[in-house]
Structure formats: structure tokens, C-alpha cells
UniProtKB/TrEMBL annotation:
PANTHER family: TRANSLATION FACTOR GUF1, MITOCHONDRIAL (PTHR43512:SF7), TRANSLATION FACTOR GUF1-RELATED (PTHR43512). Pfam families: EFG_C, GTP_EFTU, LepA_C. The lineage of its organism: Eukaryota, Sar, Alveolata, Dinophyceae, Suessiales. It is found in: Mitochondrion inner membrane. This is Translation factor GUF1 homolog, mitochondrial. The keyword Membrane applies. It comes from Durusdinium trenchii. GTP binds at A13, H14, V15, D16, H17, G18, K19, S20, D79, T80, P81, G82, H83. The keyword Nucleotidyltransferase does not apply. It catalyses: GTP + H2O = GDP + phosphate + H(+). It is a peripheral membrane protein. Its EC number is 3.6.5.n1. Belongs to the GTP-binding elongation factor family. LepA subfamily. Keywords: GTP-binding, Hydrolase, Membrane, Mitochondrion, Mitochondrion inner membrane, Nucleotide-binding, Protein biosynthesis. Promotes mitochondrial protein synthesis. May act as a fidelity factor of the translation reaction, by catalyzing a one-codon backward translocation of tRNAs on improperly translocated ribosomes. Binds to mitochondrial ribosomes in a GTP-dependent manner.
Length: 607
């Protein structure tokens, strides 16, 4: 199929608006999937099926006959991940497309991600087609939702396609609309080979599989490629198309979406958005503009739940890191949690999904510490560094930093009108700045707000609070929006005069003593009394801002106290507790001669 009859497109939607169901239906309509295929074929990972979200983008080509000219067209569908955290993955897959289908649930109407994914597609200069999904449902508000989409995108209501992934209604109309309205990919078959790398995965059987959108020229199986990011040459041992399984061919050409298998092992040496040339082509060709590797925005420590699982975690991490180049990881040793990793993620959900995959795919129970964001510090000597762990923040005798900057996000919130003031209150509490409030529908029943918020405030319990105050009727999405100055300090926890870096944390200067007081009170309740006096202090810049004391215990009550701890009637629960205590004993460490039980430590680091 020549370039002029290729169409590269994505489907973008709010989570649960029916994207996976529609994708499956498209595949089935085009004969790619047998009618009895399992639901949501493209959602391959266990965690994706379990959560009903798409984590990793997958791609598939469909052969469709045009009703207008009777010719065959190759429609390349790029399934984008469907959650707030994965906006980076969404935008990277969009670079390989010329069109996007903006899908919106005909019952729910526009939600936060409908708005934010539309903006991404718009910024990527894509032809946006609008469709409403689930039109088979009784309560579908077709006209109203079409109108909402029209206001958002400028597409006429008559042009909005009605589809149902469940019944198959409108699926042919949608395929025809894609042929009609999405332009063919740009490029030239006479220029040297040049392709965009838009995804990569490590397959234990085949090796590294690169997903590419070919702009110019052609690539033959057995030839060599050069990647602009790693600046390395690789042999293309296999190439081909995605139907949706990898199917080998001899060449891939201008306008096509395909895969290239290379003999590399480390996914980290490839970055989505980089340019793939034929060997030598980099000397004359220009890489695609605007490439930057993804930056982690949320950091957390990952430690084994059971101390003996250190090696298991190590192996699991190594394997899992091969599947996700956007996770950053370095080894870390915690005085109580043992050997683990400090990791950077694209967002909170990304962290959560990663943790869940460690458990579901590799059988390691892990503990993730309180997430933090990357702060940009200008040190006293003028040097600029990024610090995402309070332990790395300068404290006396080091000079305090000259300036600290924190990451910001632009948040889109869609909610019923009567909740506006509650949402505003929450956002103000979280140091937000209101950018706009607009009605979404004719009746003004629902509104769309945009806020600028510090990311650090969003990654705590913001989403939970929003869900609670709206009873689940608010939707939320965010995009990175630069940095701003922040008056941040490091709170050091001092146990009997010794600094315990592992317990230190970040706080805003004007909230530091209040936050510290609450933190110490919790610690006071978690550390059992011992045979001597324990003084716990919170220290900011060398000054004590809060302190508590744990009075010593008389010798004869010690044994009693330990025995009664965690007593319960349920025998299986008791057995579990005993097991845990055994583990705990092994893990119990003395910090400044104070026996800090693992539970206390765990509770503090994942407060
Ligand atoms: P995604 O999160 O956008 O991928 O959404 P899914 O495809 O996973 O669908 C979310 C839910 O909506 C699932 O429970 C689907 O069964 C249901 N659903 C999806 N499409 C339709 C449809 O056309 N009609 C009806 N009635 N339900 C649908
Ligand atoms: Mg999905």
C-alpha cells in the first residue's frame, strides 16, 4: 500500500469512555481479531486488565476498503494509554499520527481528560475527528454531548460520529471518516531512510523491538540503523508490520508504521521520540525537532516488604526496568528497610502500576516511601542541582540553598456546578491559582476549571480529597507547567541527639513547625517506650522547631508490653502477626541506641 493510502491515527479519550472496547471492535471489523477473541485484546498486561486502564501503548494495522474509491487503505491505529499520568506516553504516540479520534462517552459527556487529550492532539497539529461512544445506552445524550464536543473542538455537530464498541454501530462510518479526513503521512520514498521511534519494548524471545513511523525512504531486513539519542548503530535483524502481532516483511517504507528488531538489550539506550536513520544517514539527515527524553516527576523509594526479599526485588527490578524506559532507578540503602531502590516515575499512577507489577508479575511485595517531586536548587556556591530526596537537601554545616524551585502543573477539573466552591477551597488550600472557570453545557450544570497547582500538593491526597468531596463526580487531569520559587526547608529528625537522615522530610518554611509537631506526635506513638528516656526533635536549619519525649519504661513491664502488643482473637491473624514480628525482629535496627520497630519506620516513611 503506497504512502498516499496510509492513515496513522490514535484514539484519545477520558478513562472508561470506551476506547479499548472500540479498538477491539475495529480490529474485529477488519478481520484482524476472530469474533470470539477475549475482550480488550490490546490491553495486554495483567495490571491493565485488572485496572481497566491501558499502561503501554500498542499498535495495530487495519486494512480497510474505501466506500468512495473502492481502494484498500492501511489504517494504522496507535492505542494510547488512558490515564492522567501517562500524558507523556500519549503525546509521544501522537507524534507518529496525522489524525486523532476524540472519543467521548455519550452518557457522561466531556470529562477532564477529554479536554486535555484534545489539547495535546491540537498542539500536535493533528486532524481531530469527534465521536461519541456507547450510543447503544438508553441514557445516551447524543445531541447534548455532540454540542459539548463541538464547542470544545470547533468540529460541527453533524460531523460527530456516533459509535458503539459494544454493538458495532457506526464503526464503518468511523473507518470511512478516517480515510476521508485524516491526511496521509508526509514523507518521500526517494530520500534516505528516516523514521520516528514512538515506542520500544523488550521481548524475551525476540529481543528489543522498536516501533517506528517511517517518514522517508525504506529499510531492508539485515541492514543497519543509527539511533540519534544513543548515537549507536544496530543491526536490524527483523522488520515488519503489526497485525497486531509482529509479522515479518523484507522492507518497511515511507509512510508505514512498523517494527524493527535490534540486537540490543538495554531499553534505556532508546528514547521515544528520537530519530532512526539508516547507518550513515545521520551525517546528512536532520533528526526530528523537539525531541527531549521524558523527565520523571514523582520519586519514591522502593523496598522489599520482607527483608529476605532483597535479591528477589533486585531481579524483578532489572526485568521490569527493561520494559519501561521512563522509570529511573538507582540503588539505595535504608537503615531500617534494607537494600532497595530510589526511583523516578512520570506520575503517581505510574508509580502505583510499577509497584503492582512487581507484585503481580514477579511476586515481590514492596513498600513505596512517601512520594516526592524533583526540586531545582541553586546552591550557595551558585551550582544548580536537582534534589528529590530530603536526605540530599543541604543542612548545617552546609549553607542553605540560595533558591529552591518546585514543579507546577496545569490541572483541568470538570465537576457539577454546585461543587465549584468546594473544589476552589481545596485548590486554594493546596496553594493553587485559578486560571479559568467555564460552563460546559447549555444548562450550566457542569463546569470546567483550570488551575495552576504545585505538583507536590497534587501527589499527596489531592485526588482522593477531590473524589471524596465530589462523591466521584469530578474528573481531573494535569500537565506539567514549569517551575516556581518555593520557600522549602528540610526537617531533620533527631533521635537522642543524633540526626536520622532516613526520617528527614521536606516542608514549606511557614508550615514546618506545625507539620513537624504532627509528625513527632505520630512517631511518639509508634516508638515503644524503652529502658531510657528518648528525646525526639525536629530541626530546621539547626533550630529545634518541635520536640517530644518518650518516658522510660520500668524493666518489669517491658516483657508484658511486648507480649500484649498486637493481640487479637482471630488465630490466623495472630499467626500472621507472629510471623510479621519474627520478620520485624530481624529487621529491627538500633538507631542511636533507640530500638525503632520497622512498623514505626514504615509508618513514617509512607505517612
Ligand atoms: P477505556 O478505559 O476507554 O479503554 O474504556 P473501556 O473500553 O475499558 O470501557 C469502559 C467500560 O465501558 C467497560 O465496562 C465497557 O464494557 C463499557 N463500554 C465500552 N464501550 C461500550 C459501548 O459501546 N456500549 C456499552 N453499553 N458499554 C460500553
Ligand atoms: Mg482502555
Amino acid at each position: 500500500i503506497p504512502r498516499e493510502r496510509n492513515r496513522n491515527f490514535s484514539i484519545i479519550a477520558h478513562v472508561d469512555h470506551g476506547k479499548s472496547t472500540l479498538c477491539d471492535r475495529l480490529l474485529q471489523t477488519c478481520g484482524v481479531l476472530p469474533p470470539n477473541a477475549p475482550d480488550q485484546f490490546l490491553d495486554g498486561l495483567e495490571v491493565e486488565r485488572a485496572r481497566g486502564i491501558t499502561v503501554k501503548a500498542q499498535t495495530c494495522s487495519l486494512l480497510v476498503t474505501s466506500e468512495t474509491d473502492g481502494q484498500n487503505y492501511l489504517l494504522n491505529l496507535i492505542d494510547t494509554p488512558g490515564h492522567v499520568d501517562f500524558s507523556y506516553e500519549v503525546s509521544r504516540s501522537l507524534q507518529a499520527c496525522q489524525g486523532a479520534v476524540l472519543l467521548c462517552d455519550a452518557v457522561q459527556g466531556i470529562q477532564a481528560q477529554t479536554v486535555s487529550t484534545f489539547h495535546q492532539a491540537f498542539e500536535a497539529d493533528l486532524e481531530v475527528l469527534c465521536a461519541i461512544s456507547k450510543v447503544d445506552l438508553e441514557h445516551a445524550q447524543k445531541e447534548e454531548v455532540k454540542r459539548q464536543l463541538s464547542v470544545l473542538t470547533g468540529v460541527a455537530t453533524e460531523q460527530v460520529v456516533e459509535v458503539s464498541g459494544k454493538t458495532g454501530t457506526g464503526v464503518q462510518d468511523l473507518l470511512q471518516a478516517i480515510i476521508q479526513r485524516v491526511p496521509p503521512p508526509p514523507g518521500s520514498s526517494t530520500l534516505p531512510f528516516k523514521a520516528l521511534l514512538f515506542d520500544a519494548k523488550y521481548d524475551s524471545r525476540r529481543g528489543m523491538v522498536l516501533y517506528v513511523a517511517v517518514q522517508d525512504g525504506e529499510l531492508k531486513k539485515g541492514s543497519k540503523i543509527f539511533c540519534s539519542y544513543s548515537r549507536r548503530t544496530h543491526l536490524a535483524t527483523d522488520i515488519g508490520f503489526l497485525y497486531p502481532d509482529l509479522s515479518s516483511t523484507e522492507t518497511i517504507q515511507s509512510g508505514q508504521i512498523g517494527f524493527v528488531v535490534v540486537g540490543a538489550k538495554d531499553i534505556r539506550s532508546f528514547r521515544v521520540g528520537e530519530t532512526v536513520f539508516a547507518e550513515g544517514g545521520e551525517k546528512t539527515g536532520e533528526p526530528f525537532p523537539g525531541f527531549r527524553p521524558a523527565q520523571p516527576m514523582v520519586y519514591a523509594g522502593i523496598f522489599p516488604e520482607a527483608v529476605g526479599d532483597g535479591e528477589k526485588l533486585e531481579t524483578a527490578m532489572q526485568r521490569l526496568l527493561l520494559t519501561d524506559a521512563s522509570v529511573e532507578a538507582k540503588r539505595d540503602i535504608s537503615p531500617v528497610l534494607g537494600a532497595g531502590f530510589r526511583c523516578g516515575f512520570l506520575g503517581l499512577l505510574h508509580l502505583d502500576v510499577f509497584r503492582q507489577r512487581l507484585t503481580s508479575e514477579y511476586g515481590v511485595d514492596v513498600l513505596a516511601t512517601n512520594p516526592t517531586v524533583p526540586y531545582r536548587l541553586t546552591l550557595a556556591n551558585g551550582k544548580e542541582v536537582v534534589v528529590e530526596h530530603a536526605g540530599d537537601f543541604p543542612s548545617p554545616p552546609q549553607m542553605p540553598p540560595k533558591e529552591v524551585q518546585e514543579p507546577l502543573v496545569t490541572a483541568t477539573i470538570v465537576c457539577p456546578r454546585e461543587l465549584t466552591s468546594n473544589v476552589q477551597q481545596l485548590c486554594v488550600e493546596r496553594r493553587g491559582e485559578e486560571l479559568s472557570v467555564e460552563p460546559l453545557d447549555n444548562s450550566g450544570e457542569r463546569v470546567m476549571m483550570t488551575w495552576r497547582l504545585p505538583l507536590a500538593e497534587v501527589i499527596t491526597d489531592f485526588f482522593d480529597r477531590l473524589q471524596a468531596l465530589s462523591h466521584g463526580f469530578a474528573s481531573f487531569d494535569y500537565q506539567p507547567a514549569g517551575y516556581q520559587k518555593v520557600d522549602l526547608v528540610k526537617v531533620l529528625v533527631r533521635l537522642n541527639g543524633d540526626d536520622v537522615d532516613a526520617l528527614s522530610f521536606f516542608a514549606l518554611r511557614d508550615r514546618a513547625s506545625e507539620v513537624s509537631r504532627r509528625y513527632l506526635e505520630r512517631l511518639q506513638n509508634l516508638i515503644p517506650a524503652q529502658l531510657f528516656d528518648i528525646a525526639i526533635q525536629a530541626v530546621v536549619g539547626g533550630k529545634v522547631v518541635a520536640k517530644v519525649r518518650i518516658k522510660p519504661l520500668r524493666r518489669d513491664v517491658v516483657a508484658q508490653k511486648i507480649l500484649s502488643h498486637g493481640h487479637s482473637g482471630d488465630p490466623s491473624r495472630k499467626a500472621k502477626l507472629l510471623e510479621r514480628q519474627k520478620e520485624g525482629k530481624r529487621r529491627l535496627r538500633e538507631i542511636s541506641k533507640v530500638q525503632v520497630p520497622p512498623e514505626a519506620f514504615v509508618a513514617m516513611v509512607k505517612m
